[in-house]
Specification:
The chain has 260 residues and is α+β, with helices and mostly antiparallel strands. The protein contains five helices and nine strands, in the order αββββαααβββαββ. A hairpin with a 4-residue loop joins strand 5 and strand 6. The longest helix is centred in the middle third of the chain and has 16 residues.
Length: 260
C-alpha cells in the first residue's frame, strides 16, 4: 500500500529557515510569472511544503539573490500562520511531486527520519553557507567595488534618466538559455540630490519592446533599482550581443517610459 503524507497545518513540526537580510518582492504579476518559469515551478499562487510526516500550503512572497554574480536565488515562502522561511527553488519544485516523501519511509512503513533530516540539513547548509569572498586581481577592481558599496540605493520606485547603450543577451542559469536584456548608460536617479549610477541593465520586456527603442535613445522612466550584476552570455553568442563590462545594477519593471 502506498504511503502518503497527511495534509496537516502543524507549525510545531516545521523546521524554519528564516530569511536573513533584505527580501526582494515581486514588482508585478509579470515578474512573478517570469520567475516561476525560471525556477521551473507551475504557474500558481499556492504550493505544498512537505516535511517529515506533514505538509503545509505556502505562498511565494519574494526571493533573495546570492553568489558572486548575484545570479542564484533562494525563494522566500510564507506559511498560513504568517511565518517566513527560505527554500531552494529546485527543492520546492521537488516537493510538488505526488511521490515526494515516499523515500522518507522505511520498509516497516515508519518515517525514515534519518533520510529526511539529512536532506533538510543539506538544504539548510545550502541556504546558510556564506559566499566565499572574491579575490580581485588588481587594486583597481577593489577600489571599484568599494565605490559601488558606498552608493545608497533607494528602496522605493524613483525617477531615472538613461541612454540605451546595447541590446544584449544574458545567460539564465535556471532555464539554461539566454534572456534578452538592455544595457543602459549614464543612468541617473533624479531626487533631491541627483545620484549618478553609471551602467545598469533591465530585462527587454514586452513593455519596453513596445517603445521600439534604438541604441542612443535618451529615456526618462520610473523604476526600482537593485544591486544585481548582469550575468554574462555564453561563449557561443555573437559578439554583438555580449557585454564585456561589469554592469552592477538592475532596474526592475521600468514604467512611464518617455523618449527625450
Amino acid at each position: 500500500m502506498a504511503i502518503t503524507l497527511p495534509h496537516i497545518e502543524d507549525a510545531n513540526q516545521t523546521n524554519y529557515l528564516p530569511p536573513q537580510g533584505e527580501i526582494q518582492p515581486f514588482e508585478s504579476e509579470e515578474e512573478y510569472e517570469t520567475k516561476l518559469k525560471e525556477w521551473k515551478l507551475p504557474a500558481k499562487k499556492t504550493f505544498w511544503f512537505k516535511q517529515k510526516t506533514h505538509q503545509r500550503k505556502v505562498e511565494i512572497v519574494g526571493y533573495q539573490a546570492y553568489s558572486e554574480e548575484d545570479d542564484h536565488y533562494t525563494i522566500v515562502i510564507k506559511f498560513q500562520d504568517g511565518k517566513l522561511s527560505c527554500i531552494h527553488p529546485a527543492y520546492l519544485k521537488e516537493m510538488q511531486a505526488g511521490n515526494f516523501g515516499k523515500e522518507a519511509f522505511d520498509a516497516a512503513g515508519q518515517p525514515n527520519t534519518a533520510q529526511i533530516e539529512e536532506k533538510q540539513a543539506d538544504e539548510k547548509t545550502k541556504e546558510q553557507a556564506p559566499t566565499p569572498p572574491k579575490i580581485t586581481a588588481t587594486k583597481t577592481k577593489t577600489k571599484k567595488k568599494e565605490a559601488a558599496k558606498k552608493i545608497q540605493l533607494p528602496e522605493d520606485k524613483v525617477a531615472f534618466s538613461a541612454i540605451v547603450k546595447q541590446f544584449a543577451l544574458s545567460y539564465n542559469h535556471f532555464t539554461e538559455d539566454h534572456d534578452e536584456v538592455i544595457v543602459l548608460d549614464e543612468v541617473v536617479i533624479h531626487q533631491d540630490d541627483p545620484l549618478p549610477i553609471g551602467l545598469a541593465w533591465c530585462s527587454h520586456s514586452k513593455t519596453l519592446k513596445k517603445q521600439e527603442l534604438a541604441i542612443g535613445d535618451k529615456l526618462s522612466f520610473n523604476g526600482k533599482i537593485v544591486k544585481k550584476k548582469l550575468p554574462k552570455a555564453q561563449d557561443d553568442v555573437d559578439e554583438e550581443h555580449k557585454v564585456e563590462e561589469t554592469v552592477p545594477y538592475k532596474i526592475n519593471n521600468p514604467s512611464k517610459i518617455e523618449k527625450q
